[in-house]
Amino acid sequence: MLLKQTERQLIICDIVQAPQEVRVYRFLHGLEPFEFLPGQFVVARTEDCPEDRASLTLCSSPGDPEGFELMVKRTGNFGSKFYDTADIGSRVHLTRPTGSFGVSAEGAEPVCFL
């Protein structure tokens, strides 16, 4: 599968099972940090099903020096396929983080996302 100009290919390095058919997929930054603001999202697609894609919210702290996490619920076409087939070592193509709802790290007040 060809990598689009706006994408990076990253590899799942860990998976944590959460309740109610939800999994947290962990990725390492690689050679370049994967910089994002809280509240931003990426568009993901896999090599197994390159035509399927979904917008996923980054669910980890942007300050994590090693990597970042995406949370996927087993629902819908993409979510179900990803949940059932993505494993440690799977290659995932992700766009750069985007979205107008982002919280600046420069704010004076602490913020908690639930």
Describe the structure.
It is a single chain. With 114 residues, the chain is mostly beta strands. 9% of the residues lie in helices and 36% in strands. It has a six-stranded antiparallel sheet with strand order 4-3-6-1-2-5, with helices on one face. Strand 1 and strand 2 form a beta hairpin. The longest helix has 10 residues, at 76-85. The chain is globular and about 45 Å long.
Which secondary structure elements does this structure contain, and how are they paired or packed?
Layout: E1 7-18, E2 22-28, E3 41-46, E4 54-57, E5 67-73, H1 76-85, E6 91-95
Mean pLDDT: 86
Relative helix content: under 10%
> What is the C-alpha radius of gyration, as a whole number of Å?
14 Å
Number of strands: 6
Tell me the distance between the termini: 35 Å
Largest sheet: 6 strands, antiparallel
Low-confidence stretches: none
**Molecular shape:** globular
* Sequence of strands across the biggest β-sheet: 4-3-6-1-2-5
- Tally of alpha and pi helices: 1
Reading the helices and strands in chain order gives: EEEEEHE
- Strand-residue proportion: 35-45%
The computed structural class is: mainly beta
What's a concise summary of this model?
The protein is mainly beta and 114 residues long. The chain has one helix and six strands, in the order E-E-E-E-E-H-E. A six-stranded antiparallel beta sheet has the order 4-3-6-1-2-5, with helices on one face.
Key traits:
114 residues, mainly beta, 6-stranded antiparallel sheet, 1 helix, 6 strands, 36% strand, globular
